[in-house]
Design a protein that fits this description.
383 residues; alpha+beta; Immunoglobulin-like; Glutaredoxin; 5-stranded mixed sheet; 4-stranded mixed sheet; 10 helices; 17 strands
Length: 383
């Protein structure tokens, strides 16, 4: 009797599960006979496996899952190739793709947000390709560091301006707008919610809209917390006049910097007298950080033995992120906890990040980065 009761209970539970409203994703993956296709949820805590199927000759597939309480993100994966899509409720999303170009040549129907996400994905791939090409050019010494940095900055600005207008502010209450906020370049967020006041506004627009429609959703709460932290980090301080203490100015007139490195040791710029120094103000949690640091490492590897040193000042809001990222860098890495409102950066009149300055062996400020046409040539001249 007890066995019959448990079987009946299991049947009731299964029936209740089957009766819940579901969404459906179906379609075809051509030329993928024998390949495994996975349906995964792109949750806040990471990728969560949901279902899978071994594709047969015609490549057809069909998945059903319980509808989300608020718009959520999912992905189809074959090997390491991924198609991202979103689901609002109980819609049927139809996806067709060739195996060879699974992540880029697919078509999607039944989900306008997923179409926008595809557009954003292709735009991000194009941006990354252009950045990679510039990196190859600077590695081959076909372009100078100044051209490289200016080109990267221009590409990123144009991309962000376009995405802001067409995808974020145009419809901030959509999954596509949310998806746009978290796109990456070189594995860094393109829109920086912790260090850029303009980017915080983008996050705030989407957070406000999501909170209006889905106030109890985890994504709404998470986005709201990001915005609050970003607003705090980028809040303009009341004191706007920068006073430079006399002890910060060395006998030669260079503004000294005295900050702690990752081990807590105080590192002074003036202690590097006798070396040619690149003073670099940067944010590690930035889309251009990786390419910028690659350029610096190339110079460091070439000229450190001849007397070059790099004194890199992080203005990152996230101290742990700075320590993790800077841990393997061979030069002096310090951080100003005041972030983008650093009085030291202001005293150097830093207008954009990253920003470099050259200090000669006598501890004299030699040049600002924007006035240097060939950074390597300028460094060699100081050595």
């Amino acid at each position: 009797m007890k066995k019959i009761f448990f079987v009946a209970l299991a049947a009731v539970a299964l029936s209740a599960c089957d009766s819940e409203p579901k969404f459906k994703v179906e379609g075809e993956v051509s030329d993928a006979d024998g390949k495994m296709l996975y349906l995964e949820a792109s949750a806040l805590e990471g990728i969560v496996p949901l279902d899978s199927v071994k594709l047969k000759g015609d490549g057809s597939f069909s998945f059903k899952q319980v509808r989300p309480a608020s718009p959520e993100f999912y992905r189809l994966r074959v090997d390491d190739k991924v198609i991202n899509f979103s689901v609002d409720s109980t819609e049927t999303v139809q996806v067709k793709a060739p195996y060879a170009d699974f992540a880029t040549a697919y078509t999607v129907e039944g989900s306008p947000n997923s179409l926008k996400m595809k557009e954003l994905t292709l735009k991000q791939i194009e941006l990354q390709s252009k950045v990679n090409a510039l990196l190859q050019s600077v590695q081959a010494h076909q372009i100078g560091a100044d051209v490289f940095e200016d080109s990267i900055a221009a590409l990123l600005k144009n991309y962000k301006d376009d995405v802001k207008v067409r995808y974020i502010f145009a419809a901030p209450n959509t999954a596509a707008a949310y998806f746009a906020l978290f796109q990456k370049l070189n594995n860094y967020l393109i829109f920086d919610p912790l260090n850029s006041k303009d980017d915080v506004k983008c996050f705030a627009a989407v957070a406000t809209s999501l909170n209006n429609f889905y106030p109890h959703a985890d994504r709404s709460k998470n986005l709201y917390n990001i915005v609050i932290k970003g607003m705090k980090n980028t809040r303009t301080p009341q004191q706007k006049v920068v006073d430079i203490p006399e002890e910060m100015v060395t006998e030669t007139g260079v503004i000294d910097i005295s900050l702690r490195d990752m081990k807590g040791n105080v590192r002074k710029l003036s202690d590097l007298k006798g070396k040619a120094v690149i003073v670099d103000f940067t944010i590690y949690q930035n889309a251009v950080s990786a390419t910028h640091n690659y350029m610096l490492r190339d110079l460091y590897n070439k000229y450190a033995s001849q007397g070059l040193e790099i004194y890199q000042v992080s203005l990152d809001a996230d101290e742990h992120y700075w320590k993790t990222t800077a841990d393997n860098l061979p030069w002096v890495c310090v951080r100003d906890a005041n972030g983008v409102y650093s009085s030291i950066a202001a005293s150097y009149n830093v207008q954009t990040l990253p920003s470099v300055f050259l200090v000669n062996k006598n501890n004299e400020l030699s040049a600002r980065g924007e006035s240097v046409k060939d950074l390597e040539a300028a460094v060699k001249a100081l050595l």
